[in-house]
């Protein structure tokens, strides 16, 4: 589990093909790897990945073809948002994030709004029912609060600190993003569906 509070931005520095996916080497940036062991989980742009190599300030992960097909940002030499998995004693500054991407959204607008920026995203239609005004959503691994929701489109206000600490500062109209909807909304939907006698 994760909180959606980004600890550092890193960069994919090497990509090697696997039989069914890719092997990535990621420069950890400011992420402290001193307590990371092989087999630990690190969220990369919101995708929970298992550490398979450690080398100083770099770590390696393998990404399956299935993961590559339902996410964005892991198949190029891109900057990535990084967060280590939570420990039970950690503060939950964002919200509960599983690191399992639900779908890919598209940026419709990213523009200054006073001292902040307004980010408008179109989510896949099947995710719209899980996105609520003033609710939580994870965008490329970042825990954010929605301002307004209109069908599958929603807006977020990004403060300068969030932009400074994450890759979201590079967004523009047409950018594609990994989205994870609120875990509680997912479970509520499943519970309601289980009570449906159809």
Blueprint of the fold:
Blueprint: E1 8-18, E2 21-27, E3 41-44, E4 47-55, E5 58-64, H1 65-69, E6 79-84, E7 103-113, E8 116-122, E9 136-139, E10 142-150, E11 153-158, H2 160-165, E12 176-181, H3 183-194
Antiparallel strand pairs: 1-2, 1-6, 2-5, 3-4, 3-6, 4-5, 7-8, 7-12, 8-11, 9-10, 9-12, 10-11
Can I get a quick summary?
The chain has about 200 residues and is mainly beta. The chain has 3 helices and 12 strands; from the N terminus they run βββββαββββββαβα. The protein folds into 2 domains: about 10-85, Elongation Factor Tu (Ef-tu), domain 3 (Beta Barrel), CATH 2.40.30; about 105-195, Elongation Factor Tu (Ef-tu), domain 3 (Beta Barrel).
Descriptive account of the structure:
By secondary structure, this protein is mainly beta. The protein has two domains: 8-84, Elongation Factor Tu (Ef-tu), domain 3, CATH 2.40.30.20; 103-193, Elongation Factor Tu (Ef-tu), domain 3. 12% of the residues lie in helices and 44% in strands. The chain is built from three helices and twelve strands. The chain has helices spanning 65-69, 160-165, 183-194; strands at 8-18, 21-27, 41-44, 47-55, 58-64, 79-84, 103-113, 116-122, 136-139, 142-150, 153-158, 176-181. The strands form two sheets. A six-stranded antiparallel β-barrel has the order 1-2-5-4-3-6.
């Amino acid at each position: 589990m994760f909180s959606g509070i980004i600890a550092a931005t890193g960069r994919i520095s090497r990509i090697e093909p696997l039989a069914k996916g890719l092997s990535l080497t990621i420069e950890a940036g400011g992420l402290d790897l001193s307590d990371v062991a092989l087999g630990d989980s690190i969220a990369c742009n919101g995708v929970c990945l298992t550490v398979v190599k450690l080398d100083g300030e770099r770590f390696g992960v393998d990404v399956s073809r299935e993961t590559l097909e339902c996410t964005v940002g892991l198949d190029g030499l891109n900057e990535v948002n990084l967060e280590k998995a939570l420990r039970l004693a950690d503060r939950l500054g964002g919200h509960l994030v599983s690191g399992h991407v639900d779908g890919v959204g598209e940026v419709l607008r990213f523009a200054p709004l006073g001292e902040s920026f307004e980010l408008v995203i179109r989510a896949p239609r099947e995710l719209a029912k899980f996105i609520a005004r003033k609710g939580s959503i994870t965008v490329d691994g970042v825990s954010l609060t929605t301002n307004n929701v209109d069908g599958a489109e929603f807006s977020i206000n990004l403060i300068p600190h969030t932009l400074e600490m994450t890759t979201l500062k590079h967004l523009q109209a047409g950018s594609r993003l990994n989205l994870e909807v609120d875990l509680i909304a997912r479970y509520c939907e499943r519970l309601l569906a289980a009570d449906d006698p159809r």
